[in-house]
TrEMBL record, chain B:
It catalyses: 2-deoxy-D-ribose 5-phosphate = D-glyceraldehyde 3-phosphate + acetaldehyde. Keywords: Cytoplasm, Lyase, Nucleus, Schiff base. GO terms for cellular component: cytoplasm; nucleus. It comes from the Eukaryota. GO terms for molecular function: deoxyribose-phosphate aldolase activity. This is Deoxyribose-phosphate aldolase. It comes from Catharus ustulatus (Russet-backed thrush). It holds the Pfam family DeoC. Pathway: Carbohydrate degradation; 2-deoxy-D-ribose 1-phosphate degradation; D-glyceraldehyde 3-phosphate and acetaldehyde from 2-deoxy-alpha-D-ribose 1-phosphate: step 2/2. Its main location: cytoplasm. Signal peptide: none annotated. GO terms for biological process: carbohydrate catabolic process; deoxyribonucleotide catabolic process; deoxyribose phosphate catabolic process.
Amino acid sequence: MAALAALRAPPVPKIFATMEEGPVPGGINPGEAWLESHGRSLGHFVDGTWLKPPGRTSLECQEASTGRTVAVVPAGDSSDVAVAVAAAAAAAEAWAGLGGPQRGQRLTRLAATLEGDSRGTMGALLALAGGRPLCRTLGADLDLGLRLLQAPAGGAQLGPPGLEGWTPVGVVAVVLGGPCSLPALLWKLGPLLAMGNTALVLSPPAAALPLLLLGELGGEGAALPPGVLNILAGPPGLCQALRAHPEVTSVTFLGAPQEELQAVVWGSPCQGPRLGGPRGGRVVVVVLDSADLDSAAAAIAATAAAPPALFPGGGCVVLAQDAVLAALERRLRARLGGLRVGDPLDPRTEVGPLGPGTPPPEEVVQEAREEGAQVFQAPLPPLPEGGHRFYPPTLISGVAPTSRCLREPAPGPLLVLLPVRGPTEAVAVASALPQTAAAAVWAQDITVALDTADRLPQGLVWLNSLDLLDPSGGCAGGAADTDLDEALREFGCPPWEQPPKADEPLSPAVTVDDPGDPELAQAVAAARGAAPRWGRLPGASRARVLRGAAAALAGGHGTPKDGDSGDTDGSLQRALLRWAARVERAGGAVQEVPGGRALVTRRPLGVLGVAWGWPRPLALQLLLLPALALGNAVVVVAPPGGGGAAQRLRKALVAAGLPGGALTVISGNSRGSGSRLARQHPDGLWICGGDADCEWASAVSVPRVWGVPVGVLGGPGQDHPPGAEQELELRCTRPHCLWLPGGGP
Amino acid sequence: MKAKASMILWCFPEGICTQYRRAAAFPQGSSIPAAAGWARSLPGSILARLAPHVAEPRPCRFLRGGAGPSPDSGAMAGRNPGTELELGWISKVYVNRPAVVRHAEQIKKWKTVKGNWQAAWLLKAVTCIDLTTLSGDDTPSNVQRLCFKAKHPIREDLLKALDMHDKGITVGAVCVYPARVCDAVNTLKAAGCNIPVASVAAGFPSGQTPLETKLAEIRLAVEYGAREIDIVISRSLVLTGQWEDLYEEIRLCRAACGEAHMKTILATGELGSLANVYKASMIAMMAGSDFIKTSTGKEVENATFPVGIVMMRAIKEYYWQTGYKVGFKPAGGIRTAKEAITWLMLVKEELGVEWLTPELFRLGASSLLGDIEQQIFYHVTGTYALQHELAMA
C-alpha cells in the first residue's frame, strides 16, 4: 500500500511549486490489519470468546468515508441475546465478589492495554467506522477515554466515598444507536464495570468494530474475566429482546439516534430495569469584545470540524458581541476555509465524513438561505469515491433565533453566528437555546468573563478554551448529564433501596380532586420566578433561613396530630439545623486537570416537582428540606395528610425568609400526579410511591427523574441512614464545572 | 501627537522616494508635501539627535494604509510602504497564551509531510533559509565557506536524483555582521551568484546603542553591499509602551535602509508578553518593515511556535487592513528538519500557501541546513550520510 502511494506520488518539482501536503502513508493501517487477522468476518464477543452462531445472515460493516464494506458481523437475534445475558449473569457474582481494589486493578490493566500497542488499532477503527478524524480518535479522544477508564478504576481501588454498602445492580445493557466516540463509550463502561456490574453492549453493525476490539482487549492479558463485557452486533430492533428479559436490571443508551431506541424500550411501561439518559447537544460559544479573536476563531473552527467527544453531532452556536462581530466572522471564514476535509485516516485531516446514518444538514442550510441568512461554505477538495458523505464546513450568519438552524441541533461541521449586544444579552440568548450541552466564554477581561460564565445555565463552561474534558473536572454539561460520582451511583444499588412494593394505601383513605393543569402551571411558574432568587443566594444566607425556621418551630408548641410516632417537631428541627450546617459548609473543589484548573461545584436543579404518595408526613418534610436547602424551588403534589405537614414546613420557612414561590403544596391524589407534573416541564421530578410505571413513561422529557426509595428517609422517628444525606445532596443538585485554562509547565 | 503620527519618511540622497514613485502601488504626485511644517512636527529629541545625519531631508508622504491594494483584488502588493501610526490597531489587542500554546502543540503533533512531499518541503525550506553566522570569531575564511555552502546547499547529485538540479536551489540569503558584509558580497560576486547578503545592524543584538549609531550602521551596511538589513528594535520602548517613539525609530531605520529590504527583529523573548509581541509586530509593519523576525538568536528564549503564531496573526491582520503582505522570519534555535517543516506548516496554516516563498518567509538558521541535507540524503539513498559525505558550512 505504501509502495502504491509512492508510485502515485507526483515528482518533487511539482510539489515544490504547489506546496501541497500529500498523503501520510504510515505503512499498513493497523485497523485494517486487525480486521484482516480475523478474516474480515467477526462474531459476537460473548463470555470471553468469539460467538459465531452458524447459519446466521451477516451484516456489513462499512467504512464511513467511502461506504466500502470492511468486515461482516452476524445479525444477532434473541437467542444470541439470551446467550449473552446468561453469560453476563453467570459472571456477575464472581466479578462483584472480586472486590473494589481487584476490579480497579483489572480496569487499570485494560487501560494499559488500550494505551499500549492497541492504541493505533483502536484509533484507526474508530476513524474507519465512525468517520471521526484520526487526530482526534488517536489524540484527545483516546487520552480522555483512558482517563474515563482510570478515574472509576481508581475510585474502585479506594472505595469511592459515600458508596459504602452499595451493591452492583447486576447485568446492565448498553444500547448503541450508532457510532459513538471512545470517551462516550467508556464514560458508561468505566463506572459500570467499576461498580461490579457486568455489561452487555448491543451495537448496530456500523458501530460494532471498535467495540468488538474493546471486548477482545478486555480478554487479553486477563484484564476482564470472561462474561464481564459482552458485545453483540445486530440490527437496532434487537434491543426489544432486552425489554422483557428478567435478568437485565438496567438499560442505558449511547450514540447518535437515540430517540427511536428509547421509543422501542419506553414504548410500553417499563418493567423494572432502570433507564439511563442520553447525552449530547451543542456547544454555545460567547465571544465578548475583549476576546483573543484569532485564538477564539481557531478553537471554534476546530470544534465545528470535530465536536467535543462527549457532545457529538450538535453543532456549534457562536454569540459574538457586536463590536467584534465582523472581525470574528472574517477570521471564522478564513479558518473554516483552511480546514482540511478528507480521509479520516489521514492524521492531518480535520473534518471527516458525516457519521453513518447522519443525514447531511442540507435542508437546514437551505432553509436558512431562504430566510435571508448569509451562508459561507468552504470549498470541498477533490474527494475519493463516495465523497457525497462529506459536508463542507459551513458558517451561517444573519439568522434570527426563530430559524430552524437554531431551534434544533444540526449535525455536521456547521456553525451559526449570532450578534449580541453585550454579556447580559449573550446569557439570555444562550439560556434560551434548546439542547445545549456546554458553553464557552472568550474574554480576556477577567471580571466580565467570570461574571458571564457564572450566569450561563450550562453545566460545563470553558473560559477561553473549548473541548477540555476530564472526569475529575467534569464531563457533564447538559441538564441531564452526570458527573463521575453520579455515574458510579447510576450503576449501583444503595443499601437503603428496597424492592418496589405494591402501593401502600394512604391513611386515612380519602379521595381528593386532582389538581388541574392550570393550577400546576401557575405553581410551576411561581417556582420558576422564585428559583433564581433563592438558588443564587449564598449557602450562608439559606442556612440562616433554615435556622430561623428551626427557632420558630422550637418556640411554637405543635403536637403531632397524624400517625407519625415520635416528636415530629423535634425531628424536623434537628433536620433543619443539620441541613443548615451542611449548606453552610457546602462548597466546591478546585481540580488540577490537564490544561489547567477546573472549579467543580454543584448547582440547584431549579424547579423540582415532587409527587408524594406515602403515608408518613414527616418523611415528606425530611425530603423537602434538602431540596429547598440546596436552593431549589419545589412544587409538591400530596394527599391531604402529607400536604398538611408540608404546609406547616412552608409556613415556618416563609416566615424566616424563604421566597413564597419557592415551595407550593398542592393537594392531589398520588396516582398520576407525577405524569401531570411532568407535563409542566420541571427541571427535576421525584416520584414517591404512586404508580411508578406510568410516571416513568411520561417523564421522558424531564432531565432528572428519581424514584425516591423509601429507605433514604430512614425509618419513622429516625434520621437518614448513613450516606443518604450525600445521596440527597446529589439528587438535589447538578454538576457545574468552570474550566480555567493556563498554568502548567 | 497628531503630527507625530503623520505618515512621513525621510529620504536620503540615495533616495527611496524615486524608487517608490516608480512602483505601481505608489501613484505620482502624492509625495513631497511642504517640508517645513513636517520638520517641526518631529519630537525635539529625535530631531536633535538626527541633526548630523540629515543632510537634506526630503520628506515624502505615503498613502494612507487603506489605499493600498485591497486584499481581495489579488494585486501584487510590492514592498510594504508602511502606514500612518494607527494606535487604534494596537489599542485592543488580546492574546490568550494557553490557547495559542495549545494550538501550536496540535499543529506540531499532527501536521507532517512524508515521502516526496517531505523532500519538496525540505527543499522549499532550504530556499527560505537565511544562512547565518553571527559570532565574534567570524573571519573572511569561514564567511567564504558559508557563502559557498549557500550557493550549493544540497549536494548536486542529490538534487539531480530529485530532478531539482535545474531549479536554482540556493538558500534565501547569507546573514552576517556588518563588518563581514564585504567578505560575503565579494565571495558571492566571485562565485557568480546572486544570493543577497543580509546584514544585522542597528545595534545588534541588544539594540542598546544610540539611534545615530544605529542609523549609521545601517547606512554603512547598505553601502558595503548588503541588500537586506536585519535591524533590532529597542526593547525598552516596547516594555515602557512608547509606541510612537518605536514607530519613529523603525521609520528612520527603514529610510536608512533605502532600497535594501528591512527585517525587523522584535527579540520576542524580551518583550514580556504575547500581547506586546503582537503590538510590536503591528508597529514594525506600520513603520514599513518588509519582514518581521522573531529573535536575534542571542536571547534566552528564541523562536517558539506560540510567538510565531502571534506574529503571523498580526501579519494577517495587517494584510487585511492594508493589502500589503509582510514577510515572516523565525530565527534562533531552529536546528532540525522536523522543526523547519513545522514552521512551514504553521505559515501555511496561519497565512496561507502564498507566504511560502523566500520573498515572504525566511528561516534564520546556521546548523539547520546540515540536518535538512542529511534528511534529503536519506530520502534519496535510503541511508544516512557519513560526516565526510556532506560539505560543511
